[in-house]
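Colleagues,

For the teaching module next term, I've prepared a clean inverse folding example: a structure given as tokens, and then the sequence designed for it. I'd like students to try predicting residues themselves before seeing the answer, so please don't circulate the second half yet.
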């Protein structure tokens, strides 16, 4: 049998072996097709080495200490501060010491050919891979090419920023030392999580944000994270821009803010969003714009300016690069649907692209889930009140104090948190849920199931939360909404 790693023709060629590319490859191979995956850096992508895993490892020890300190006896047992070297060493393990041997072995066992190098589309269903030694290999796809090249940190237009050699998320996630003073530009998810992590590790953190913190989440959740960061000693300069950067001869960076204030720091972390990895992919030959996000249709086929699939529909984009949801779990959800769809098409089967169908990615629009690992955590699914109103839903907004739930009061003394459900008043179903508070992450999946299954609130009254758990928030929210009498 031919060695798949030496073949040049495959059913599917995937560019990018991040979590999304890996999952597309897995599904097409499980669907009976052959697949090659092209990777220019590490198999596993951003998430494994510079994003989800190492950043959550940086946050976890401090969260455990906080949880213990919220209880009188356990708090007594916690003495001293965090051992920074041990936190960084555990982070290194979670980043697999930046070695992809394990993930490359997994590809091999799964029967997926790994081609190392930079991939470019050089013709219809053709990808040319340039290795680090400059040699090229041409791969031909029989059915489809999938772009899963992810995204990189975007630098904001701050004068002379490049001269101060700022950190981006990669440098923060892989930091070898904890700077005494860290300035963060950007108050989104990366900025807020890294402010939480580095202040707990001992940095004096100053965060500058154009907007309120976490502008994508419900304002009450953003407010609680803002208050907690302030209480932890983080200096927040909100609704301001950094305009200029300069590093002096002693190594100190000086940032000028739009109101004229100056911020001094040892390092600057830029966390102002992402830019797609599409600059050098050969997209210009296909009438697409290099460096732009890749617009896709419901089947994740890349579409041109006319909204129609490029070519005869052989080119797909999944994960960060299509900008539908810049989250690993949503990218992998897209990958499962797309991999199955490519296999189904290749076997001459009909696709099921109706809402919630097997090959559809409906949850990207109706039930996006996210946990933000700040202190307190934020967990959200579906629409916020603002987004639901903007989308034209007639809604009821129901709020409840999480700290008033018996399970939360037991969980931590002085538990502070809040939950909100957004109800589609016409259908009486949940279309959004947000919770903020210590350890709310694991509350999220119950809400996700209610939103995706479109469970009526009448039925949710029969989902009895165990006593005394934090999940009793569901009962409290239903009570706050009031039991409605069915008129039919
Ligand atoms: C600091 C940070 C923390 C995050 N934390 C979380 C979190 O907790 N939970 C969560 O769900 N999401 C998180 N995210 C988002 C998550 O990292 C991304 O959504 C996810 O990595 C996207 O996966 P992907 O496969 O689309 O792209 P990537 O992970 O970026 O992988 C793309 C791969 O393609 C390769 N590639 C690119 N161009 C080429 C080319 N031309 N040829 C060959 N290979 C190429 C790259 O080297 C890379 O390996 C975080 C992001 C950041 C920045
Ligand atoms: N826990 C998680 O799920 C997690 C963790 C980290 C990152 N991520 C994902 O990674 C993606 C990238 O995160 P991010 O924080 O870089 O982006 P983001 O889009 O969440 O936030 C970027 C922030 O930077 C601000 N900004 C933009 N331009 C600016 C400028 N010139 N000056 C000052 N501020 C500016 C924006 O107003 C926004 O607040 C997000 O989409 C997020 O979903 C997820």
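(Answer key — instructors only)
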């Amino acid at each position: 049998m031919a060695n798949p790693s030496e073949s040049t023709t495959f059913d599917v060629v995937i560019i990018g072996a991040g979590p999304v590319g890996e999952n597309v490859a897995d599904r097409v191979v499980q669907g009976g097709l052959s697949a090659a995956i092209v990777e220019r850096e590490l198999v596993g992508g951003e998430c494994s080495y510079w994003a989800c895993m190492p950043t959550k490892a940086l946050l976890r020890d401090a969260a455990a200490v906080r949880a213990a300190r919220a209880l009188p006896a356990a708090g007594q047992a916690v003495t001293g501060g965090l051992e920074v070297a041990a936190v960084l060493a555990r982070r290194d393990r979670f980043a697999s010491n930046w070695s992809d041997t394990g993930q490359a072995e997994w590809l091999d066992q799964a029967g997926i050919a790994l081609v190392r190098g930079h991939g470019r589309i050089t013709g219809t269903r053709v990808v040319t891979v340039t290795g680090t030694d400059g040699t090229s290999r041409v791969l031909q796809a029989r059915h489809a090419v999938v772009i899963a090249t992810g995204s990189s940190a975007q630098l904001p237009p701050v004068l002379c920023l490049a001269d101060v050699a700022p950190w981006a998320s990669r440098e923060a996630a892989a930091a070898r030392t904890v700077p005494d003073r860290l300035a963060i530009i950007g108050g989104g998810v990366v900025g807020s999580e890294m402010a939480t992590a580095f202040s707990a590790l001992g940095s004096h953190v100053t965060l500058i944000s154009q907007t309120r913190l976490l502008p994508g989440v419900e304002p009450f959740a953003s407010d609680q994270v803002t208050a907690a960061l302030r209480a932890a000693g983080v200096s927040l300069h909100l609704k301001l821009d950094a305009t200029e950067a300069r590093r002096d001869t002693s190594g100190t960076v000086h940032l000028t803010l739009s109101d004229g204030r100056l911020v001094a720091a040892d390092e600057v972390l830029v966390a102002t969003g992402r830019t797609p990895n599409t600059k050098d992919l050969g997209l210009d030959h296909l009438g697409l714009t290099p460096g732009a996000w890749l617009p896709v249709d419901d089947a994740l086929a890349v579409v041109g300016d006319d909204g129609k699939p490029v070519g005869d529909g052989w080119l797909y984009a999944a994960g960060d690069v299509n900008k539908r949801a810049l989250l690993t779990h949503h990218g992998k959800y897209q990958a499962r649907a797309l991999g199955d769809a490519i296999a189904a098409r290749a076997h001459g089967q009909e696709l099921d692209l109706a809402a919630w169908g097997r090959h559809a990615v409906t949850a990207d629009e109706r039930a996006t889930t996210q946990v933000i690992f700040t202190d307190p955590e934020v967990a959200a699914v579906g629409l916020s009140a603002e987004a639901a109103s903007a989308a034209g839903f007639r809604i009821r907004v129901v709020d409840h104090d999480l700290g008033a739930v018996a399970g939360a009061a037991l969980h931590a003394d002085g538990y502070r948190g809040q939950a909100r459900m957004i109800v589609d008043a016409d259908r009486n179903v949940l279309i959004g849920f947000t919770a903020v508070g210590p350890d709310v992450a694991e509350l999220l999946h119950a809400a996700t199931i209610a939103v995706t299954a479109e469970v009526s609130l009448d039925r949710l009254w029969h989902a009895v939360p165990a006593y005394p758990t934090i999940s009793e928030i569901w009962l409290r929210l239903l009570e706050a909404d009031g039991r409605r009498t069915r008129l039919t």
